[in-house]
What we know:
The protein is built from 10 helices and no strands. By secondary structure, the protein is an all-alpha fold. Helix 2 runs antiparallel to helix 3. The two termini are 29 Å apart.
Amino acid sequence: HSNRDLPGPYKFATLWSGQEGSLLFWSLLLAAYGFVLRLRYKTDPRLFAYASVVLAAVQIFFLMLVNFAAHPFAILEGPLRADGSGLNPLLQYPEMVIHPPMLYLGYVGFTVPFAFALGALIMKYPGEKWIQITRRWTMVTWCFLTIGVFLGAHWAYAVLGWGGYWGWDPVENASLMPWLIATAFLHSVMMQEKRGMLKVWNMSLILLTGTLAIFGTFLVRSGVLDSIHAFGASTLGVPFVLLLALMIFGSIGLIIYRRDALRSEHQLDSLLSREAMFLLQNLVLVAMVFVIFWIT
Length: 296
């Protein structure tokens, strides 16, 4: 994906311009997040240990893809150009050096709050401390994803010539869905911190955010759809479907199993209360995600 005439920044961008390199980049970022997690483990050693195991399981999945299904260091077959094939002209745009890493930092970053939530369910974590830790991670990754989506919208307008900033491309939709669910979580989690409400709802939202981030990765790499963003024909669909199934059924099973520990401490006082307005806003955001998912 590179050649000798490419400027330095675009040579760096070739890392994520292909299927194999992008998966390697995914694994590198997940390792970096895991390293930061390790540095902060003294916040709560037991919870961080459980979260690290979940994160390691996701990392093993991507390392298996990189080693056995999409090897980034494999030798290409057939005749090669002496100076390299070069980067796709559509990707030779300044924002494309920043847009994909921001999206990746968002996608990969959402596996961290997912891991914390799953760890809290497994160990029946008491109190709301895991929420405080998770909210910080979610806010940081939400910011990364927001920047990535905005840069991608401008690239679509300036380079793809769609006549607008959003073309409802399936992969664009895939980046919007976890953003909407994370936005809903960041609003409703305040009710759990202050009044101990919506515990099952908040747990479901953060687990769904992590699952939708993996779903977005699946759409780009599985070859199930035709998109300017997709990598085309691929054999990676089945492994991603298996991972998504494990995440979905594992999350649902754990929430049902721990439902007694997730009971709310207070109920809604009035349909016109602040809590009710937060819940209504959440329902609107989740409904938007359902519509986008169904149409996509």
